[in-house]
Amino acid sequence: MTTAEIGIIGGSTLYKMDGLEDIREVTLSTPFGDPSDAIITGNLDGVPVAFLPRHGSGHTLGPAEIPAR
To answer: What is the pLDDT of residue 61?
Structure first.
């Protein structure tokens, strides 16, 4: 998958997406710092999706630790 049509930022109870197929992890850096975790890409019912667990996988980051830049 090269481009996602939908981007989803998970919250306190959403750490993974059931039904996501062709899963890949994309680790990236930005000029504003690293995101809270790897971006998970895949297809959900045939739609390309990118997913970021806001608090990190398994809720490893507290609210004050989430990169917000």
So the answer is: 67
| Strands of 47-53's sheet in order across | 6-10, 47-53, 39-44, 20-26
Give average pLDDT by consecutive 10-residue segment, the chain, 69 residues.
83 76 91 86 93 76 71
What is the predicted pLDDT for the residue at 14? Answer: 72
| Residue 38: other Cβ atoms inside 10 A | 17
Query: Do 17 and 48 form a contact (C-beta atoms < 8 A)?
Result: no
Residue in the block written with tokens 């917000």: 68
| Residue 64 three-state SS | helix
Give the closest residue to 66 by CA, choosing from 44, 35, 45: 35
